[in-house]
Every structure is written in C-alpha cells, then in structure tokens.
Amino acid sequence: MQKNPRLSAIIDQLLQRPTPPVSVHVVVGELIPFSDGQIFAQWKDSPLMHVELTIRRILAEQQCMVCFQKYHPAQREVACPHCGARGAKVISGEEFFLESTEEK
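Above: the chain sequence. Below: its structure as tokens.
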C-alpha cells in the first residue's frame, strides 16, 4: 500500500501528544491522488486505528492564466473551458491538513 506522506506526518504529530484524541478531522483537496478508502486504510494501519477519522473534501478550483476565469477542473482537465488555453493556477484542491481534533 502506498502511504500518503501528509497523513503520515499528521499521525506522527498526533502520536506526540500525551493522550490520543477521540476523533480527528482532516481536510483533503480533490486533487490529492488518494481516495478516501486509501486514506482510511492507512489510518487503520496506524497506532491510531481506534481513533475516529473524518475526512472533509475540498473541491478543486483553478484560474486560467490567459482569460483569468475561474473554473472547476472536471476530469482533471488542463485546458480552460472558457478560452481553451493551457496553464492555470490552482486556487484550491491540493489541501491536506489536520482541521481539528476532539479530546476526551
């Protein structure tokens, strides 16, 4: 199983705490190439397997560098649907971070 290094870092950070949390909430962007199933599998294979994990997905948004229109990259398209130009700035969708924890 390929491990997500960002999730590994979150797990390592949580293991540094004196007591484990009851639940963990992470934010994952749509462009992260790991499915929820892969993330849950890595979580279940960690020392925090008994801690509840919740994933909140963020939709991807890009901005064309030619016409400056913002759009959702359906099917991970690389061409702007407004002008057809290639080359866009990713505005959202690459996030992967610990949003919050609930303690005992």
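Residues 5-14+21-102 form one domain.
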